[in-house]
From TrEMBL:
SUPFAM superfamilies: FAD-binding/transporter-associated domain-like, FAD-linked oxidases, C-terminal domain
Gene assigned in the entry: glcE
A single MF term (Gene Ontology): glycolate dehydrogenase activity
Organism: Vreelandella malpeensis
Stated name of the protein: Glycolate oxidase subunit GlcE
Gene3D superfamilies, per the entry: 3.30.465.10
Keywords of the record: FAD, Flavoprotein, Oxidoreductase
Entry annotated with the keyword Oxidoreductase: yes
Amino acid sequence: MTEPATPAPDRDISEALCQQVANAHRTRAPLRIVGGDTRDFYGRPVEGIDLDIREHSGIVSYDPVELIVTVRAGTRLDTLEAALDAEQQRLPFEPPRFGTRSTIGGAVATGLSGPRRPWAGATRDFVLGTRVITQEGKRLRFGGEVMKNVAGYDVSRLMVGAQGTLGVLADISFKVLPKPAATHSLRLDDIAIDKALSLLATLGREPLPITAAAWHENALLLRLEGGESSVKATRDRLGGEPLAPAFWDALRDHRLDFFTLDDGETLWRASLPPNTPPLAPDVGLATLYDWAGSQRWIKTRDGEALRHACQKVGGHATCFTPAARGGAPSPFTPLDPVLEKYHKRLKAELDTHGIFNPGRLYAGL
């Protein structure tokens, strides 16, 4: 695990960042946007001058009553979460950290969400607005209290998951939610995956306080969150053995033993429609089911076979292993011609000279 870093002080360096971006735009010099670098494995390698946002940190404003917080992009996730925790609130989308240096800007740029995603919502669902440094080195606000459109695009949502390819996130405003009154995690042993998926489909049709559901090695793992009476009633109904709450943090941040790879293995995330049965056994060496089966972490030695199997059932697969990026067109599912055309048009509109994290998502974007 990455060694803890001293949190940067409350500081606004957006003017200096704007100047760096403006210079890069003028000279057409590519930039590699750098925060905590804990998610550098996610996407294609980027060659460029480092644009370090870590010192652009601190909570700009926080209104616990209105459930709104605005934070600078270089702020460490643990710093923000500690401030929210003091008010018994949290980021509902449970962003993965992958290390102690993780920043909120990186969490939004990658758009990844934790085990709570199917029940609470995705990262983009809680982004109210952003302040973005554009290619000309200007600071523009989108969403929130002030709305400015660029060619009709919802820029705040576009920035989520764009991997910094469309501009530099400076500030982000979030909707936060209170922590639940009660929480309980449980483990149901000796339950095969077919039975587990059937049970999850049944439970999903009821108003139960489930906020995480995983399966691995014949065990169904559930988290209940909500009112005390609701959590107790569901816990009594399902039974099972208590599960340490830390399991969900370890799953979110890939700290479980499952995520240790042997030589030749690569880790893939399969995103599949709800209630999809298990994939063909020959495409994966081991599978950990998350999001009630809609997200599956699969270890394999044949990523292309896995990707093909996911596409056949209406899903897609993404490679999470840095070593597997070399020589591959992209760790992400290839774009069809129509989508590729729109991606290129958007990139040309917001990043004319291709200076922002060029090639991070796909070659030429």
